[in-house]
Amino acid sequence: MEKKESVGANWQQSRLLTANQIKYLENMQTRSKTYLVIKRTCDIIVSGLALVVLVPTVFLVMAIIYRFGENKGPMIYKQRRIGKNGKPFKIWKFRSMVVNADKKLKANPELYRKYIANSYKLPAEEDPRITKFGRFIRKTSIDELPQFINIFKGDMALVGPRPVVEPELKEYGDQVDKLLSMTPGAMGWWQASGRSNIEYPERCDVELYYIDHASLWFDIKVVFLNIVSIFKHTGAY
Question: Taking the model in full, what pTM does it have?
Answer without folding.
Answer: 0.80
